[in-house]
TrEMBL record, chain A:
Belongs to the binding-protein-dependent transport system permease family. CysTW subfamily. Residues 278-510 form the ABC transmembrane type-1 domain. Its main location: membrane. InterPro entries: MetI-like, MetI-like_sf, Phosphate_PstA. The chain crosses the membrane at residues 274-303, 323-344, 364-384, 414-435, 491-513. This is Phosphate transport system permease protein PstA. NCBIfam families: 3a0107s02c. It is found in: Cell inner membrane; Cell membrane. Gene3D superfamilies: MetI-like (1.10.3720.10). Residues 158-219 form a coiled coil. It comes from Halomonas korlensis. The keyword Flavoprotein does not apply.
TrEMBL record, chain B:
One of its GO terms (cellular component) is plasma membrane. GO terms for biological process: transmembrane transport. Keywords: Membrane, Transmembrane, Transmembrane helix, Transport. The keyword 4Fe-4S does not apply. The chain crosses the membrane at residues 21-46, 107-130, 142-164, 170-189, 201-222, 254-273, 302-323, 370-392. The keyword Membrane applies. Belongs to the binding-protein-dependent transport system permease family. This is Phosphate transport system permease protein. It is a multi-pass membrane protein. It comes from Halomonas korlensis.
From TrEMBL, chain C:
One of its GO terms (molecular function) is ATP hydrolysis activity. This is Phosphate ABC transporter ATP-binding protein, PhoT family (TC 3.A.1.7.1). Residues 25-266 form the ABC transporter domain. Keywords: ATP-binding, Cell inner membrane, Cell membrane, Membrane, Nucleotide-binding, Phosphate transport, Translocase, Transport. PROSITE patterns: ABC_TRANSPORTER_1, ABC_TRANSPORTER_2.
């Protein structure tokens, strides 16, 4: 410490404050890195990456996207992982190559990337198309299976066919949901000749649509020369990323994001979208809010306004506060033991005895998950509401009482309106906490795959006993239980990004509320 | 004043009745809700008790069997084993809670090793050195970090961090090594900068401008790593660890879990510790500084002793969170029920075991009840720790009020 | 303390002998304790109708506690133990026939700090009336205007009745609170240091208002400001350590106190 003030650290101060500053910097860096990683990987997945045609020194060729590089296990160079797709031809969609053995890399414009319902993606060339549109808009001849289109024309008609397929799928869904299902349920209620005829007509149309969709296939060739026929119906999306301009890619990116948000998962959760998980999360959180809000506020009012403020109340208050620190998994255990096996089991015995032993309410489901999370977030709401109530000066209450108001009138007309921002803040924090909890859900009703969302057109419309999908669990499942983790990873990133955005958004709203939204009458007057 | 609008007697009675009814409802509802929430502990205890009755479910479970090493057929020495599902048809399941409890504590301990220095450092810096404007931004930012769901942190830790560290073991090691001298160097270099630069790069804002410096350190560490590995570790850190210390490196190990969980619990420790530190009446630190103490001396001699109960309670609450965190351990630990000291091997925690095994365990069976006992342990532990922390914090608040009032 | 009269004897010698018919509130042997802390000891006095009665005394002497006992505000606190009787116009305010809400409507209260509700000026004044219900919009409008006029606030706020009450100045807020209380038509108005949080001009306005109001109601004022008590009250009660020390016409109490304790306090010779 003999250094002069000019050159070294101030006397008695030492270098230690720099460590404290460093811990702030490290924390911020970690937070930033985490968010950046999620954003880049999550959003980058939807950007159409160029396909590289790789030729190795031994003469073999493949087409794929470079995923990552790593040093060779024995040292001396790098190896590179390519996503080469074509699982039906190659067995594995991934290829590791030693970087040194690469002879040439090219990016030909005519390489296509097809996303398929089965076997994952295909990388290669489109050779021909048959049974598609024969070029004349809207007219289709019988025996068109024989029409064979080749080269650039094949690509054009494939794109047209895919757009058409999309329209057909929509029409099919509409026909099924709006015509056939209602007709069928009306028929089930009472026999009716005209209805039956109508239904038969609709079903015929349905079959016709399905036939149209099923027709047509394309001839594909991988870069090493293997050929296969692929039904057009099984193609979800076709791209030629090397030929795409930036606006094209931007449009494709937007479309990709939209599909991710709006579609259901495919291929054991390793492809497709997360719509059912979004829906399940939101629905579960909504139900939880409906359950937790009244009870949380009631308990807070009791603790703060009604209960005798003695030692007992102080103890209960501390206990409730501490329950916010009890691990969420413990709530999950309680939910499983009491709600699912206890209450659910009894409900099954009383009302659903005919379906036993397969359980209705005696297994995890939406209702039990919402209840469990409601219990989990109850302390959050109680504490926040109580803080809001405690901040209201007593002379406001006395003012109301002195005018002859009963306690209820004082509460509803003066106290609760003033505590509204605090209650809202508590609710939002509760929702943010609930949206991110996964562990208790694993015990009380989350499902790996539940394409059937718990709301539909059948009575009672909201199916509380059904299992549901959840964004958080979806991350866990795709990342740890998929058959092809490497393929599912980008989707897990995207899902994680979505979840984080939702939760950060909710928390920011709560912070904003806490700081800016006081009563419209402004701040509490200070005395 | 004349009695302008005498209220009707009927309405008066109605109001009274409604009020009584509402008060009764609020009381009933309030007590009901509180009982329901507090009932969690009761439920767990009631479900666990039959385990220890002589005529209990299995009768084979006693406290010794759960916590002491057991001799199993085919093994020479008594050991701890958690194998709830028998591997062979003729084997019996092995229930020893010890490895699970050990795994839980090990994970929590490493998490605290990471989180406590970071959180306390950040809390000290923002309470003592940071300008008010920056502090009012930093605090909510770090509190936002607290809201990051465990499943996301666990996902990053298990699938990105763990393989990355495994591949760049030497680099990661060098980074840790370089960090502290690097921060000292930053302070030293700054003191040698020309005055206008020094005026801009103040200690108060160092939390921000040190970030690019740290990135630079990171790059340097990775440049240095191969050289260091060749020089000290026979060109292969992993092999060196194995031959020299007999440490096996598991990709998902206690250090990875500790780092991930450290990030998860750091914000809550930070927030509480910062509250405790900045709650110390400023007259105290100012008094010390008026006597010629530096900021750092004032911190160590006056502020930290005054705030120490609050800081302690912050650490306790962090420990409570780390013990109960499920998803991070589940995803980043490998879930092997080992009982080793090595930070480079995996572990299985109570919470993770519950999450994995409970859905498959038959309700009412031994396995089911044992898992409920694990939950009860977690409940009791966190409840006690939090109560203690709360009591300490209440005392501290009272003390500040006295100090501030004096 | 040795030169003072023993506490038990202090009140009896100082009570003014109002006739029953002239007194609005009768307090008889009132004792009150918060848990084990005694706040009032055997207080007996009668408050005359249509007069201003002031309670004075050092901080913590129990004057506010006594005031709050008059409209049963202590009911909120379960730790409070009470003995003795308080009669409003002859009927026991703790009697089974007496409804608290009804009592508080008849005995209004204004607090130390202005406490308008977070609502518009109009809604504040209409608050008590709306609780009773059964009023038409027109009647409500008239009652609000009448109350605001009586509280000398109408001219200042008549153009912004819908504005938030929290936008008013402190003095205006306090007059609004008085108007709010007047609107329900009380017989007694309790004022707990109503001007202590206000500036001198607002204080004068409030004092003038108090003098004007005694034509229509009975006022009880708690104040730590002896000049204020001397300026506005007709009768003054001096309390110390929970006991009523001396009670009499303001003029004679201030100019010619009977007890040494009272004199010491009035002349400021007491801590």
């Amino acid at each position: 410490m003999a250094m002069s003030k000019q050159r070294g650290f101030p006397r008695g101060e030492g270098p230690w404050p720099w460590l404290t500053a460093g811990s702030v910097a490290i924390s911020l860096l970690m937070l930033g890195a985490l968010l950046l990683l999620l954003a880049v990987r999550g959003l980058g997945h939807f950007w159409p990456a160029p396909v590289t045609l790789v030729e190795l020194q031994d003469g073999s060729r493949f087409a794929g996207m470079a995923v990552k590089e790593a040093p060779l296990p024995g040292g001396g160079g790098e190896e590179r992982l390519y996503h080469t797709a074509n699982r039906d031809l190659e067995g594995s969609p991934w290829t590791w190559v030693e970087v040194a053995t690469i002879e040439a890399e090219r990016h030909p414009d005519d390489l296509v990337v097809l996303e398929r319902q089965r076997w994952g993606a295909f990388h290669g060339r489109l050779m021909a198309l048959r049974g598609g549109d024969d070029g004349v808009e809207g007219q289709r001849k019988v025996g068109r299976e024989d029409a064979l289109v080749e080269g650039e024309a094949a690509w054009q008609s494939l794109v047209a066919r895919l757009a058409e397929l999309e329209a057909l799928r929509n029409e099919l869904a509409r026909l099924r949901d709006d015509t056939i299902l209602p007709l069928a349920s009306r028929l089930a209620d009472g026999e009716n000749a005209t209805l039956a005829a109508e239904l038969a007509r609709a079903e015929a149309r349905l079959r016709e649509l399905q036939m149209t969709m099923e027709s047509g296939e394309v001839l594909l060739e991988s870069v090493d020369g293997t050929r296969l026929w692929q039904p057009i119906e099984g193609i979800v999306r076709a791209q030629r990323p090397n030929a795409m301009s930036v606006p094209d890619k931007l449009a494709a990116w937007g479309q990709g994001v939209w599909r991710f948000l709006a579609e259901g998962p495919r291929a054991a959760n390793s492809a497709g979208g997360v719509w059912p998980a979004i829906f399940g999360t939101v629905l579960m959180v909504l139900l939880m809010s409906v359950l937790v809000a009244p009870f949380g506020v009631l308990a807070a009012i009791y603790l703060n306004e009604v209960a005798h403020q003695g030692r007992m109340t102080r103890l209960v208050r501390i206990a409730v506060r501490n329950l916010a620190g009890v691990p969420s998994i413990v709530y999950g255990v309680f939910g499983l033991g009491v709600f699912v096996y206890g209450i659910g089991g009894s409900l099954d015995e009383w009302f659903f005895a005919d379906t036993l032993p397969s359980p209705t309410f005696g297994t995890g489901g939406l209702l039990w998950a919402s209840l469990t999370l409601a219990l989990l977030t109850l302390p959050v709401v109680i504490v926040a509401t109580e803080e809001g109530l405690a901040r209201i000066p007593d002379h406001q209450r006395e003012g109301a009482l002195a005018l002859g108001a009963t306690r209820l009138e004082m509460l509803t007309r003066v106290v609760l309106p003033m505590a509204t921002p605090a209650m809202l803040t508590g609710m939002i924090l509760a929702v943010a906490r609930a949206a991110g909890e996964v562990a208790p859900l694993m015990l009380v009703g989350v499902a790996k795959l539940a394409p059937q969302v718990p709301v539909d057109g059948n009575f009672p419309f909201l199916h509380l006993e059904r299992k549901f999908m959840h964004l958080g669990y979806h991350i866990y499942d795709t990342a740890f239980h998929g058959s092809d983790v490497q393929a599912a990873l980008p989707l897990a990133y995207a899902t994680a990004l979505l979840l984080v955005l939702v939760i950060l958004g909710l928390n920011l709203t709560a912070i904003f509320l806490r700081h800016h939204l006081r009563s419209r009458h402004g701040r509490l007057p200070r005395h | 004043m004349r009695d302008a609008f005498p209220p009707s007697r009927y309405r008066q009675r109605l109001r009274q009745g409604v009020d009584r009814l509402a008060t009764a409802l609020i009381t009933a509802g309030g007590i009901g809700v509180i009982v329901a929430v507090l009932g969690i502990g009761v439920f767990l205890a009631v479900e666990v008790v039959p385990l220890f009755w002589a005529s209990g479910v299995a009768g084979t479970v006693n406290i010794d069997a759960l916590w002491l090493p057991q001799t199993y057929a085919g093994l020479d020495t008594p050991q701890f084993r958690w194998q709830p599902a028998a591997a062979m048809p003729d084997e019996t399941p092995r229930y020893s809670m010890a490895p699970l409890a050990w795994g839980t504590l090990k994970a929590a301990l490493w998490a605290l090793v990471i989180a406590v220095p970071l959180a306390l450092g950040a809390a000290i810096h923002s309470a003592m050195y940071m300008p008010r404007r920056l502090r009012s931004r930093l605090k909510p930012t770090l509190e936002l970090m607290e809201a990051l769901p465990g499943v996301v942190i666990g996902f990053i830790a298990g699938l990105v961090l763990a393989p990355w560290v495994e591949r760049h073991l030497a680099g990661a090691f060098t980074l840790v090594l370089v960090m502290i001298p690097g921060l000292f160097a930053a302070g030293m270099l700054r003191a040698r900068l020309p005055r206008p630069w020094r005026a801009r790069l103040t200690l108060g804002w160092a939390g921000l401008w040190l970030m690019p410096w740290l990135l630079l350190l990171g790059v340097a560490a990775f440049e240095l790593a191969p050289w260091l590995e060749a020089r000290w570790f026979d060109d292969d850190l992993r092999g060196w660890l194995a031959t020299r210390f007999g440490l096996d490196y598991a990709s998902r190990n206690a250090l990875i879990v500790g780092l991930a969980m450290g990030i998860a619990v750091m914000p809550s420790i930070y927030a509480l510790a910062e509250d405790a530190l900045s709650g110390v009446p400023s007259s105290l630190a100012e008094g010390a500084e008026a006597l010629g103490a530096t900021r750092w001396q004032a911190l160590w001699r006056v502020v930290l002793p005054a705030a120490s109960p609050g800081v302690l309670s912050a650490v306790m609450i962090g420990a409570g969170r780390a013990v109960g965190e499920t998803m991070i351990v589940l995803m980043a630990s490998g879930n092997t029920a080992l009982m080793t000291l090595s930070p480079l091997e995996g572990m299985r925690s109570l919470a993770a075991s519950i999450a994995i095994e409970l859905p498959e365990a038959a309700p009412g069976g031994t396995h089911y009840r044992l898992l409920l006992m694990a939950a009860l342990l977690l409940f009791v532990f966190t409840f006690l720790v939090n109560t203690l922390a709360e009591v300490v914090r209440t005392r501290l608040r009272r003390r500040y009020r006295r100090l501030g009032g004096a | 303390m040795s030169d003072l009269m023993p506490p038990a004897m202090a009140p009896s010698g100082t009570i003014l002998a109002f006739k029953r018919e002239a007194s609005c509130l009768e307090i008889e042997g009132l004792c009150l304790a918060y848990g084990d802390k005694t706040a009032l000891r055997d207080v007996t006095l009668r408050v005359p109708r249509h007069r201003v009665t002031a309670f004075i005394g050092p901080s913590g002497c129990g004057k506010s506690t006594l005031l709050r006992a008059l409209n049963r505000l202590h009911d909120l606190n379960e730790d409070v133990v009470r003995q003795g009787r308080i009669r409003l116009e002859g009927s026991d305010i703790h009697g089974p026939e007496m409804d608290v809400a009804q009592l508080r409507r008849r005995v209004g209260m204004v607090f130390q700090a202005p406490n308008p509700f977070p609502m518009s000026i109009y809604d504040n004044v209409a608050f008590g009336l709306r609780l009773q219900g059964g009023l038409r919009k027109r009647q409500l409008d008239d009652a609000v205007e009448e109350a605001l006029t009586a509280a000398a606030l109408w001219e200042e706020v008549k153009d912004r009745l819908r504005a938030s009450a929290w936008t008013l100045s402190g003095g205006q807020q306090q007059r609004l609170v008085i108007a709010r209380t007047l609107a329900v038509g009380p017989e007694v108005l309790l004022l707990d240091e109503p001007a202590s949080a206000l500036d001198p001009i607002s204080t004068l306005k409030i004092e003038e208002l108090i003098r004007n109001l005694k034509a229509s109601l009975t006022l009880v004022l708690v104040t730590h400001n002896m000049q204020q008590a001397a300026r506005v009250s007709d009768y003054t009660a001096f309390l110390q350590q929970g006991e009523l020390v001396e009670y009499g016409p303001t003029d004679s109490l201030f100019t010619n106190p009977r007890l040494a304790r009272t004199e010491n306090y009035i002349t400021g010779r007491m801590a």
